[in-house]
Amino acid sequence: MAFFESSVVLLITVAISSFISNLVPKISGTYISLIMGIIVGLIPLTNQTVLSFNDEIFMLLIIAPLLFFEGQETKTYLVRRKIKNIVGTAVILAIISAIIGTIILHSVAGISLALALIIISISTPTDATAMGSVSDGLILPTRVNVVLKMESLFNDATGIVLLQAALIWYSTGHLALSQNISTFFISAIGGIVFGVVAAGLLILFSFLSLQLF
């Protein structure tokens, strides 16, 4: 019953958010959804009705399918052509931006560098759907739009490693650079290997299915 009530509140909130987005097309629907979420959280009745956030369910049922379908729509030859831009934006630019953002947040808010890095890492968009929703209503040059979409499919490793580094730093008081760098390469290379193997198995399965049936 609690799950049903929570789902009804969330669905009504999404419907209202979508309705307002259609009325104000120049404002990204993501920001309107965030405002609606804050309102739901501030009202005691709706806040108590909605179930607590479960990160494992969210990753399994929301993030994984989104990344899968976004990856399916990505053309391989575009990735090969834009690999330098992808590495530059998904890794180098992401790290530089995180460092600058951490220093600014530390200076303005007066919080520790480790906590500032946690906040910056969490606020990093990690998929093409997030990028598309934020840029909704904006007119972007084709080249910029392509590069950002490609980058958003590959910045997961950077964001996760930055968050892991920040959490270790916050809990231990020490920033383990060598451990974090090795974790990054393991995540990046492991993701590539797993993706290639999974894609190969899916192609093989499809080929065998066509031969048999």
Q: Which tags fit this structure?
A:
213 residues, mainly alpha, 2 domains, 11 helices, 0% strand, globular, sodium transport, transmembrane helix
Proportion of residues in extended strands: under 5%
Poorly predicted runs are: none
Task: Kindly report the oligomeric state of this protein.
Answer: single chain
Number of strand segments: 0
Shape: globular
The Cα radius of gyration reads: 20 Å
How large is the count of helical segments? 11
Largest sheet: none
Structural class call reads mainly alpha
Cα(first) to Cα(last) distance is 44 Å
Could you tell me the mean pLDDT? Answer: 75
Pattern of helices and strands: HHHHHHHHHHH
Provide the domain count.
2
Subcellular location: Cell membrane
Protein name: Na+ H+ antiporter
Main location: membrane
GO molecular function: potassium:proton antiporter activity; sodium:proton antiporter activity
Would you give an account of this structure?
This protein folds into 2 domains: 1-52, no CATH class; 67-212, no CATH class. Helix 6 (83-109) packs across helix 7 and helix 8 crosses helix 9. The mean pLDDT is 75. With 213 residues, it is mainly α. It has helices at residues 2-23, 29-42, 44-49, 55-72, 76-81, 83-109, 113-122, 128-134, 142-152, 156-172, 177-212. InterPro entries: Cation/H_exchanger_CPA1 (IPR018422), Cation/H_exchanger_TM (IPR006153). Its main location: membrane. The chain crosses the membrane at residues 6-24, 31-51, 57-74, 86-105, 153-172, 184-208. Keywords: Cell membrane, Ion transport, Membrane, Sodium, Sodium transport, Transmembrane, Transmembrane helix, Transport. It is a multi-pass membrane protein.
